[in-house]
Amino acid sequence: MLVLQQHIRVQVNHDLDCSESSVRLMAMRTQMVDLIGRRNALGGIEACPDGAAQLRQPYRPELRRRNLVPKEKPGRSRALAM
Fold first, then answer.
1. Whose CA is closest to 36, among 48, 24, 21?
2. DSSP secondary-structure letter at 80?
3. Domain boundaries, the chain
4. Using CA atoms, how far apart are residues 22 and 30, in angstroms rounded to an integer?
5. CA torsion sign, 68 to 69 to 75 to 79?
6. What is the C-alpha to C-alpha distance for residues 19 and 53, in angstroms, rounded to an integer?
7. What is the C-alpha separation between 42 and 35, in angstroms, rounded?
8. 24-44 per-residue burial string, b: 16 or more CB within 10 A, e: under 16
9. pTM (global) more than 0.90
């Protein structure tokens, strides 16, 4: 399945027709869900992987906030004050 998905991405990136590959991939996914259902009927309890749950996870590292020193207000130059 992963190889077929990569093949579809290549076809899309080159503006080629990927409808046949997409139909085969959807058939593979349907068969996978059917096989998981059969396994669960026999006593398996593992759930199907949920892509939406993976998308909700943060994928960026936490940004560090820098403590910025406030700049002095614009005004007269200290060099001219002497």
1. 48
2. G
3. 1-40
4. 12
5. negative
6. 27
7. 11
8. ebeeeeeeeeeeeeeeeeeee
9. no
